[in-house]
Specification:
The structure holds 4 protein chains of 4 kinds. By secondary structure, chain C is an alpha+beta fold. Helix content of chain C is about 35%, strand content about 15%. In chain C, strand 2 (about 75-85) and strand 3 form a beta hairpin. Chain C is elongated. The relative contact order of chain C is 0.16. Chain D starts with a helix and ends with a helix. Classes of the chains: A alpha+beta, B mainly alpha, C alpha+beta, D alpha+beta.
C-alpha cells in the first residue's frame, strides 16, 4: 500500500502539518496536507520515491494569497492525495520540474494564468496563451470576475 | 520507297508521338476516374457521380479547373528548374509508349532494344522528382525528393533483374519478340517469382502506395510536389497515372503474354483488346493494393528491397540462366 | 528458415487484407447522395429553437418571463414584450435569436415554464453575414401558423 | 578541428515546422522538430492555438451554463466530459441521481467511448497511410452517432447529462439500435483484424516504435490507454468506480511493451470491453425516473471544493471545482489527460524518424482542443 507509505513519510517530514482526511469523498482525495513553500520540493521528492505521479497543479487566487494545489496519485485504487501550499502574491515558490517532468508544462500553465513564477524552472514561456502575452487571465483582477474573496471565506 | 512521305519512318514517328500524347492523356484522365471509382466502391461509397454519367467527365472538369488556377512560384525557388520538372517528368513516359507492342502491327517503332529503352528512360522520372523537390526550396519537398531518389535506386535493381530473367529466356530485348514467344504459355507461369518481383518493384518505381513515401501526404504534406499548384501539380499527377499504365503495359508484354490470348486461344478477340484488358486488370490490382494497405516506412522499404527482393531476384536469375543453358 | 517464414506469413496477411477490401466492392453502398437523397431526422433532433404553435389557441404561449434570455450561456436570445393593458400580462412582440452564437445546449427549452419553446427540425441553414444568422422567431411563427392551417385544410379535403 | 566538426554538426541539423497546418497534427498542434536527415534530434510541441479560456468562462457562469462548454473540450468524447462535469457538481451539491439515469449515462458514455476510439482507429490508419480502414471505422461510428442522435438530438456535442439525470429517457428504439450495433460489431472486429491488426506492414510500422516505459509514463503523468499499454492496469472506472461501473464485469486490457502497437491493441480491445459493459447495462437497466425533479434551476452548492476524476476516452480526466456558495464556481479547473500524454513526446520523439513521429503522435491519440482548453 503506497498510500500508507506516503502517509508515514509525510508525517515524518512535516510533523507540524496534520493530514486532513476526507471521508465523504467529495474532494476526491484520501487526505490533504498543507506544506510551507520551502517544503514543496521535499514533499514532491517523497511522492516520487513512493511511486506517485503528479496529476495536476493548479492555483486559486484569493485576496490575501495564492494557494497552489498539487494532486498526486498512484496506480492503486483510491490513492489520490492533495498537497496545498499557500503562496503570497509576491512570493516565488520553487519548481518541482526536475522531480516530476510533467511539472514543467503544468508550472508553465500556472505561471501564464496566474503570474506565479517558479524559481528554477528555466522555461516559463506562455504555453497556451500567445507568446507575447503579459496578462494573467485567471487572476481575479483580470476581466469579468464574479467574486474576489479572502481565503477564509471559503475554507474557514 | 514507293510509299513516299506517308510510309517514311519519320512520319510514322511523328504521327505516333501525336497519337501517344493524345492517348496517354485521355488514358490518364480515365485512370484517375477509375481510381476514384475503385477507391469509392472499396470504401462503400459511389465515388464521383455528378459530372457526366457516373462522373466520367469529372476528371476533365478537374483538369479544366487546374488549368484555370494560378501557378504559384514560391519565393526563393529556382524558377527554371521549378518549371522544368513537371515537363521533364513526362518525357520518359512518352518515350516508353513508342515501343509498346499493342498488337502485332500496332507498334510505333519496333526497336531491337525496346526493353532497354523503356527502363533507361524511366530513370529520368526520378531526376524530374529531384529537380522539382530541390527547386521548390521547401523542406518537405526536399525530403520527399531525397526519399524518392533512394527508393528508385533501390528498386530499379530488382526490377531490372526480374526483367533480365525474361530476356534471358527469349534472347532478345525486343518487345515483339518477347510477346511472340509467349504464344502458348505466358511467362508468368514460367517465371512467377520474377513476375511478382517486377510488380512490387514497379509499384515502388511509380511511387504508388504502399510505397508512396516520396509523397506520403500524412508525413510530408505532399512530398516533392508540395509547392506545385495548378497545372504544375496536374502534370505530376497525370504523369503518375501514365507511368502506371506504362509499367503495367510492360508487365503485360513481359509476363502476361501481351496481345496473345489465354493459352493460345484468342476467342476471336483482337490482340489489342487482349493487351488493354490485361493492362487494365493489372492497373486495377495496383489500385486495389493502394486502397488496402498502410504505407511502409522509409527504412523498411529499403530493407525490403535489399534484403528480400534483390537476393530473391538474383537467385531467380541464376536458376533461369542455368535452366536456359541446360535446355 | 525464419526468413522465409516471415515473408510467407507477411504475404499471407497482405492477401487476407486484400480479401477484406475486395469483398466490399460487391456490397451495397452506405452513403447517400445528399441533396437528392435525405435520411430521416431523429425525433429528438435539436435544431435552433422555435415557438410552438398550440392547436387550441393557434398561436404560442410565451408570457415574456425572460427565463430563456437569462439562462442562455451565450446571450443568444433577445425577447421583447409589452403590456397591452395597464395591469395585464405582457405579450410577446419580438423574439430574435443570434444563431451564430448558439451552442444548442437546450437550457432555454428546459426552463420555459409554458413549454412554448421547442427545437425546430431545420438543418439546412446558411448565412454569409452575421445578419443572416439572426433568426426572427415571430416572423417564423407566422409561416408556421400558415403552414399548419394549410395542412389542416388538405386534411379536411382528404377526409 | 573541433570547431570545424561543430560547424558541420550544426549544418547537419535543420529545423522542420510540423504544423499547425499539417495533415497529421490533428487540429492545431505545432511541433518544432530539429532534424538530422530524417532523424529527430529535438522536439518542442507548441500548443495553445485553440485556447478559448474555458476555465475563466467556468468562473463566470452558473454551473449549468458551463455544461455546453464541457463537451467542447474533448469534442470526440463530449458526452464523457458532460458526464464527468455533472458528477462533480452532483457531488458538490449533494444531488441524488436515480438508478435508471445512472445506467443511461453509462450506456451513452460507453457508446461515446467506442465512437471516440473508432475515430482514433480510423485517423491513426490514415496517419500511417491506410485510407480505407478510416472509412470503415467512420461507417461504424455513424451507427453510434445515429443511435445517440435518437436520445440526445445531437451528433457531436451532446449536452446530454443534467444535474440529477439526463435530458431524455431512452426508449425501445434506442435499445434496439444499440443491440443491433453490438451485433454488427461482432463481425467487424474480425474484419479489422484481417485488414489492420494482422497486416505485416502495419505491425512493422508500429512495433517497438515510440516506446513509453512505466517510469517515463509516471514521470509525465500519462494515463488512459497509453499507460495501460505499458502494462499498468490503471483505469478510473475500476480504481474509483463512479456511477454503476462496479456492477459490471469487464477487463482492463493492458500491453507489455508500451509501444505504438500495444497502444493500438489496448484501444482495440477496450472497444470490445465497452461493448461488454453496454450489453450488461442494457440487461440490468432498471425502470424509474431519468431525472430528479428536485434540482433547483439556480443551483448554489455549499462552500467547499470537489475533485472528481473519471475515465474519458483518453485517460484520467478530472474537474476541480471550488464553490463559494454562489451560483457560479469560484474556480473551475480541468485536468485533461492529453496534457501529459502529449508532454511525453518531448522524451519519446528524439531519435526516431519523421515517419515514426507521425505514427507515435497518432498512437498517443491527443485531442488538441482538450489541451488548449
Amino acid at each position: 500500500m503506497r498510500i500508507k507509505d506516503i502517509e508515514s513519510r509525510m508525517q515524518n517530514k512535516f510533523p507540524d502539518s496534520p493530514l486532513k482526511g476526507d471521508d465523504t469523498g467529495v474532494t476526491g482525495a484520501k487526505w490533504s496536507i498543507s506544506v510551507p513553500i520551502s517544503g514543496i520540493r521535499d514533499a514532491a521528492m517523497e511522492f516520487d520515491a513512493a511511486g506517485f505521479f503528479l496529476e495536476s497543479i493548479t492555483a486559486l487566487d484569493f485576496q490575501d494569497t495564492f494557494e497552489l494545489v498539487y494532486h498526486f496519485n498512484c496506480y492503486e485504487p483510491g490513492s489520490r492525495v492533495t498537497v496545498r501550499m499557500l503562496c503570497g502574491h509576491d512570493q516565488v515558490p520553487p519548481t518541482i520540474c526536475d522531480i516530476f517532468r510533467s511539472a514543467g508544462w503544468l508550472e508553465r500553465e500556472v505561471h501564464e494564468f496566474f503570474g506565479i513564477k517558479f524559481s528554477g524552472n528555466e522555461d516559463l514561456r506562455p504555453l497556451l496563451l500567445p507568446e507575447d502575452a503579459d496578462y494573467h487571465p485567471l487572476r481575479k483582477t483580470f476581466g469579468r470576475v464574479g467574486a474576489y474573496h479572502k481565503r477564509e471565506v471559503i475554507y474557514g | 520507297m514507293s510509299e513516299g512521305l506517308l510510309g517514311s519512318e519519320l512520319f510514322r514517328l511523328i504521327l505516333g508521338l501525336v497519337i501517344v500524347i493524345a492517348f496517354s492523356q485521355l488514358n490518364a484522365l480515365f485512370l484517375v476516374w477509375l481510381e476514384r471509382k475503385v477507391s469509392g466502391h472499396i470504401q462503400l461509397r459511389p465515388g464521383p457521380m455528378e459530372v457526366g454519367p457516373h462522373g466520367l467527365l469529372q476528371t476533365i472538369a478537374d483538369g479544366v479547373k487546374l488549368i484555370g488556377k494560378e501557378l504559384i512560384l514560391p519565393l526563393k525557388a529556382d524558377k527554371k528548374l521549378f518549371f522544368l520538372a513537371p515537363v521533364l517528368v513526362f518525357t520518359p513516359v512518352l518515350v516508353g509508349f513508342l515501343v509498346l507492342p499493342f498488337s502485332p502491327g500496332l507498334i510505333i517503332h519496333d526497336m531491337n532494344v525496346g526493353v532497354l529503352l523503356v527502363f533507361a528512360f524511366s530513370t529520368i522520372t526520378v531526376l524530374a522528382i529531384l529537380t522539382g523537390g530541390w527547386a521548390s526550396n521547401n523542406k518537405y519537398a526536399l525530403l520527399g525528393a531525397v526519399r524518392s531518389v533512394a527508393q528508385n535506386v533501390a528498386y530499379e535493381i530488382p526490377l531490372l533483374l526480374a526483367v533480365l530473367s525474361v530476356v534471358l529466356m527469349v534472347h532478345s530485348l525486343s518487345f515483339s519478340h518477347i510477346v511472340e514467344s509467349q504464344k502458348t504459355v505466358w511467362f508468368i507461369f514460367l517465371q512467377p517469382l520474377a513476375g511478382l518481383i517486377y510488380l512490387i518493384a514497379a509499384t515502388a518505381e511509380t511511387n504508388r502506395a504502399p510505397f508512396d513515401i516520396p509523397e506520403a501526404e500524412s508525413e510530408l504534406v505532399a512530398g516533392f510536389h508540395t509547392e506545385y499548384s495548378g497545372m504544375g501539380f496536374g502534370l505530376f499527377f497525370l504523369a503518375e497515372y501514365t507511368n502506371m499504365f506504362l509499367v503495367c503495359a510492360v508487365a503485360t508484354s513481359l509476363f502476361f503474354g501481351g496481345w496473345n490470348g489465354l493459352f493460345g486461344f484468342s476467342f476471336g478477340i483482337p490482340g489489342v483488346f487482349w493487351f488493354l484488358l490485361k493492362t487494365y486488370l493489372l492497373i486495377f490490382v495496383i489500385m486495389w493494393v493502394r486502397w488496402t494497405f498502410p504505407r511502409v516506412r522509409f527504412d523498411q522499404l529499403m530493407n525490403f528491397s535489399w534484403k528480400v527482393l534483390i537476393p530473391l531476384s538474383i537467385v531467380n536469375l541464376l536458376i533461369t540462366a542455368v535452366v536456359v543453358k541446360i535446355i | 528458415m525464419g526468413y522465409f517464414k516471415d515473408i510467407f506469413v507477411g504475404g499471407l496477411s497482405l492477401i487476407e487484407g486484400m480479401g477484406v477490401t475486395v469483398r466490399r466492392l460487391f456490397q451495397p453502398l452506405v452513403t447517400v447522395q445528399y441533396p437528392r437523397q435525405k435520411i430521416p431526422l431523429s425525433s429528438a433532433y435539436r435544431g435552433h429553437i422555435e415557438l410552438k404553435v398550440f392547436e387550441e389557441s393557434g398561436t404560442h404561449k410565451c408570457i415574456v418571463c425572460l427565463n430563456c434570455e437569462k439562462t442562455c450561456p451565450s446571450g443568444v436570445i433577445r425577447v421583447q414584450g409589452e403590456k397591452q393593458k395597464e395591469k395585464g400580462p405582457k405579450t410577446l412582440t419580438n423574439y430574435v435569436i443570434d444563431f451564430s452564437k448558439c451552442s444548442l445546449c437546450g437550457l432555454c427549452v428546459e426552463i420555459c415554464p409554458t413549454s412554448t419553446l421547442v427545437y425546430s427540425k431545420e438543418y439546412e441553414l446558411v448565412g454569409e453575414t452575421g445578419a443572416d444568422c439572426q433568426i426572427d422567431l415571430m416572423a417564423r411563427l407566422a409561416t408556421q401558423v400558415e403552414k399548419t392551417r394549410e395542412e389542416k385544410k388538405t386534411q379536411e379535403i382528404a377526409a | 578541428m573541433d570547431e570545424l566538426e561543430k560547424i558541420e554538426a550544426d549544418d547537419r541539423v535543420y529545423s522542420l515546422n510540423l504544423g499547425p497546418q499539417h495533415p497529421s497534427t490533428h487540429g492545431v498542434l505545432r511541433i518544432l522538430l530539429d532534424l538530422d536527415g530524417e532523424y529527430i534530434v529535438k522536439c518542442d510541441p507548441v500548443i495553445g492555438y485553440g485556447h478559448r479560456g474555458h476555465e475563466k468562462m467556468g468562473e463566470n457562469r452558473q454551473y449549468k451554463q458551463f455544461l455546453p462548454n464541457t463537451s467542447r473540450m474533448d469534442y470526440l468524447s463530449g458526452l464523457l466530459y458532460n458526464h464527468g462535469f455533472v458528477l462533480a457538481v452532483e457531488k458538490l451539491a449533494g444531488i441524488k441521481v436515480p438508478e435508471r439515469a445512472k445506467y443511461i449515462r453509462v450506456i451513452a458514455s460507453e457508446l461515446n467511448r467506442i465512437s471516440s476510439h473508432l475515430l482514433w482507429f480510423g485517423t491513426y490508419l490514415l496517419d500511417i497511410g491506410g485510407i480505407t480502414p478510416f472509412l470503415y471505422a467512420f461507417d461504424d461510428r455513424e451507427h453510434i452517432l445515429d443511435t445517440l442522435d435518437t436520445i440526445t438530438g445531437s451528433r457531436l456535442t451532446y449536452s446530454y447529462c443534467r444535474f440529477g439525470g439526463v435530458t431524455r429517457d431512452i426508449d425501445s428504439k434506442f435499445i434496439d439500435m444499440t443491440r443491433a450495433f453490438l451485433k454488427r460489431m461482432e463481425s467487424r472486429w474480425a474484419d479489422y483484424e484481417a485488414l489492420v491488426s494482422k497486416n505485416v506492414i502495419f505491425i512493422h510500422r508500429t512495433r517497438d516504435v515510440g516506446v513509453i516505459d512505466v517510469n517515463l509514463a509516471r514521470q509525465y503523468g500519462v494515463t488512459g490507454p497509453n499507460l495501460r499499454a505499458c502494462g499498468v492496469a490503471f483505469d478510473v472506472r475500476r480504481s474509483e468506480p463512479y456511477e454503476v461501473y462496479d456492477r459490471f464485469d469487464f477487463e482492463i486490457p493492458t500491453g507489455t511493451r508500451g509501444d505504438a502497437l500495444d497502444r493500438y491493441d489496448v484501444r482495440f480491445r477496450e472497444m470490445q470491453q465497452s461493448c461488454r459493459i453496454i450489453e450488461q447495462a442494457l440487461e440490468q437497466l432498471p425502470e424509474g425516473e431519468f431525472l430528479t425533479p428536485k434540482v433547483p434551476q439556480k443551483l448554489s452548492p455549499p462552500k467547499g471544493e470537489v475533485y472528481t476524476a473519471f475515465e474519458s476516452a483518453r485517460g484520467l480526466t478530472a474537474y476541480y471545482l471550488v464553490s463559494d456558495g454562489s451560483p457560479a464556481p469560484y474556480r473551475c479547473h480541468i485536468r485533461v489527460p492529453s496534457f501529459g500524454n502529449l508532454n511525453v513526446l518531448n522524451d519519446v520523439l528524439p531519435g526516431t524518424m519523421v515517419a515514426d513521429a507521425i505514427a507515435i503522435l497518432g498512437s498517443i491519440d491527443v485531442v488538441i482542443p482538450e489541451i488548449d482548453r
